[in-house]
């Protein structure tokens, strides 16, 4: 048995493997009893929903099972009554069937500098949604960080610091003790019930975040070896190149919850080299100079990054102070191609 076209292995359209091929399961009275058996058989916990998939998700292949009646306690679907009289089958319109199991719930962090910091999102009943920041605090963040294997919580953030989500706001008033195994084990309001907008989306920063600052691996570390670039939370940083290959394109820095450009004034090949090294893209690169006219969209955080021979990390290099308007012409943005 398997579930297909869902967001995880524990939700989707039901298919059964018989006689060497996967087949659709069709029924005209599919309900929670049948869904409970499917979820139990797949070790996905309790059933949350039984449904008939919308037209784009319906199958077109062979039918493996048509007409199922379960009591709800069976160990697998084939132990249910699958030998219904033709008259019963003809009475209704048999359609593809689907289930959502409790085990399909997931949590993730998005729009941050790594997988261990970002906006908190929960996958529930087939869609991703956010959490309102009402009452959001460090014990709540601790549960998320532990659940994701990201260490402890460094900060619980609100006010959509990692950007506004879209779609559902799944939880409000979350009140964890910090000892729960999963976020949905914490006391909270009913699923989908809230009085929030996405401007109140909650986020976390975990101690497992991979910091780009050499010599300053976490916010509690002493700072004597760090340059002004090596700031503490909530102004933590990361570096990226915007192209899909990750080793060429516009150079950007993550600062104060937002990605922004690095300007090219005073940019040297030594600075390019340290940026490429920081990104795991080799030990050198070239600076692109043929750039279009136009205005910069979004913040341009840094200018006059001047790395010297004594600097071993991009983050140790002196620069102008943080300023979201460090440059406003596209020709002044830094574009590099690393040799890695």
Strand and helix layout:
Blueprint: E1 2-4, E2 11-18, E3 21-27, H1 32-41, E4 47-51, E5 63-66, H2 86-91, E6 95-96, E7 98-101, E8 106-114, E9 117-124, E10 127-131, H3 138-147, E11 153-157, E12 168-171, E13 203-206, E14 237-241, E15 248-255, E16 258-262, H4 269-278, E17 285-287, E18 300-302, E19 335-338
Parallel strand pairs: 3-5, 10-12, 16-18
Antiparallel strand pairs: 1-2, 2-3, 2-7, 3-6, 4-7, 8-9, 9-10, 9-13, 11-13, 14-15, 15-16, 15-19, 17-19
Describe this structure in words.
- The protein has helices at residues 32-41, 86-91, 138-147, 269-278; strands spanning 2-4, 11-18, 21-27, 47-51, 63-66, 95-96, 98-101, 106-114, 117-124, 127-131, 153-157, 168-171, 203-206, 237-241, 248-255, 258-262, 285-287, 300-302, 335-338.
- Strand 9 and strand 10 form a beta hairpin.
- Strands 1, 2, 3, 4, 5, 6 and 7 form a seven-stranded mixed beta sheet that branches. Strands 8, 9, 10, 11, 12 and 13 form a six-stranded mixed beta sheet that branches.
- By secondary structure, it is mainly beta.
- The longest helix is centred in the N-terminal third of the chain and has 10 residues, at 32-41.
Helix content bin: 10-25%
Determine the oligomeric state from the structure.
Answer: single chain
Cα end-to-end separation: 44 Å
- Count the strands? 19
Overall 3D geometry?
elongated
Query: Could you state the order of secondary-structure elements as H and E?
Result: EEEHEEHEEEEEHEEEEEEHEEE
Portion in strands: 25-35%
Largest sheet: 7 strands, mixed
Number of helices: 4
Give the rounded overall mean pLDDT.
81
């Amino acid at each position: 048995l398997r579930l297909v076209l869902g967001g995880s292995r524990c939700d989707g359209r039901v298919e059964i493997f018989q006689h060497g091929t996967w087949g659709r399961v069709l029924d005209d009275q599919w309900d929670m009893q049948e869904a409970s058996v499917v979820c139990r058989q797949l070790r996905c916990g309790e059933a949350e929903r039984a449904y008939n998939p919308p037209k784009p998700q319906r199958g077109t292949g062979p039918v493996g099972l048509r007409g199922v009646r379960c009591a709800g306690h069976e160990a697998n679907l084939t132990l249910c009554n699958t030998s219904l009289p033709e008259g019963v089958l003809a009475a209704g319109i048999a359609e593809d069937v689907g289930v959502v199991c409790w085990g399909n719930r997931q949590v993730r962090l998005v729009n941050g500098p790594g997988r261990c910091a970002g906006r908190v999102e929960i996958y529930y009943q087939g869609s991703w949604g956010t959490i309102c920041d009402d009452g959001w605090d460090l014990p709540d963040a601790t549960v998320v960080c532990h659940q994701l294997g990201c260490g402890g919580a460094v900060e619980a953030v609100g006010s959509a610091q990692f950007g506004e989500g879209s779609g559902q706001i799944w939880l409000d008033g979350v009140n964890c003790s910090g000892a729960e195994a999963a976020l949905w084990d914490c006391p909270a309001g009913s699923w989908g019930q809230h009085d929030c907008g996405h401007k109140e989306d909650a986020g976390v920063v975990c101690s497992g975040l991979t910091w780009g600052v050499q010599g300053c691996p976490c916010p509690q570390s002493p700072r004597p070896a760090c340059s002004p670039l090596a700031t503490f939370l909530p102004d933590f940083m990361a570096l990226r190149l915007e192209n899909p290959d990750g080793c060429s394109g516009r150079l950007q820095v993550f600062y104060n919850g937002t990605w922004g450009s690095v300007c090219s004034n005073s940019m040297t090949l030594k600075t390019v080299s340290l940026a490429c090294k920081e990104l795991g893209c080799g030990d050198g690169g070239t600076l692109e100079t043929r750039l279009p006219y136009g205005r910069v969209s979004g913040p341009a955080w840094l200018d006059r990054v001047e790395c010297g021979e004594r600097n071993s990390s991009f983050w140790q290099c002196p620069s102008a102070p943080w300023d979201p308007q460090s440059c406003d012409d596209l020709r002044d943005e830094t574009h590099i191609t690393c040799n890695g």
